[in-house]
Amino acid sequence: MLLGASLVGVLLFSKLVLKLPWTQVGFSLLFLYLGSGGWRFIRVFIKTIRRDIFGGLVLLKVMVKVRQYLRERRTVPILFTSTVRRHPNKTALIFEGTDTHWTFCQLDDYSSSVANFLQARGLASGDVAALFMENRNEFVGLWLGMAKLGVEAALINTNLRRDALLHCLTTSRARALVFGSEMASAICEIHASLDPSLSLFCSGSWEPSAVPTSTEHLDPLLKDAPKHLPSCPDKGFTDKLFYIYTSGTTGLPKAAIVVHSRYYRMAALVYYGFRMRPDDIVYDCLPLYHSAGNIVGIGQCLLHGMTVVIRKKFSASRFWDDCVKYNCTIVQYIGELCRYLLNQPPREVENQHQVRMALGNGLRQSIWTNFSSRFHIPQVAEFYGATECNCSLGNFDSQVGACGFNSRILSFVYPIRLVRVNEDTMELIRGPDGICIPCQPGEPGQLVGRIIQKDPLRRFDGYLNQGANDKKIAKDVFKKGDQAYLTGDVLVMDELGYLYFRDRTGDTFRWKGENVSTTEVEGTLSRLLDMADVAVYGVEVPGTYKFQKTELRKEGFDPAVVKDPLFYLDARKGRYVPLDQEAYSRIQAGEEKL
Question: Could you tell me where the DSSP H helices lie in 405-449?
Answer without folding.
Answer: none
